[in-house]
Amino acid sequence: MVAVDFTASNGNPRNPNSLHYIDPSGRLNSYQQTIIEVGEVIQFYDSDRRFPAWGFGGNPFNGTVSHCFNLNGMPNGSEVEGVDGIMAAYASALHNVALAGPTLFGPVINMAAEIAGQSLTHNDRSKYFVLLIITDGVLTDLQETKDALVRASDLPLSILIVGVGGADFTQMEILDADNGRLVSSTGRVATRDIVQFVPIRDVHSGRISAVQALLEELHGQFLSYVRAGDIKPRNLQVA
What we know:
GO terms for molecular function: calcium-dependent phospholipid binding. By secondary structure, the protein is an alpha/beta fold.
């Protein structure tokens, strides 16, 4: 699953300085680069290679800012075909969505959690879900996001966050929870850490590989889930 930040802080997509600028020369922007680099690795763990893809913080020209809209512009069904489908839906959305705000993660995390939870509702414990969030901004709903992550920590779900641009990503480091599990507003402690955050500027500096940095914790998060549920590895799929 992929969620792309359409808040106005990204800059006008028609401006070459925008983080959403589509370069006619074919040079990829940070969003495109992340989708391809991570998607080309993750897709091989998905049997049908159909991915739910959303945008958040934008106005899909219907007069209402949405914090979880289908990237493909379809009213019913958010799935697209493969990494190429994500890239095409993203490029199309830039022509059909007005950038707005604020930056809220809660709705897309809750949507991903709902999908992950549905598999358990149907007694299907053979799937594990991964949500990739690409963002440039500072969260407006930090506590709501922490609450959503704590609720989702019982589900077969991991969340990879890539920060693009030069914003202060201190909040993302908090969500990453490397220094202790998240605590909700009601005092509930997360069952496990389900978030990995990487700022793309560290990748561009050559200090780290985007894919390596994003996926280095994923196997541990996955194993912590299956071990807690005593789930045998036979016939397990990543979705």
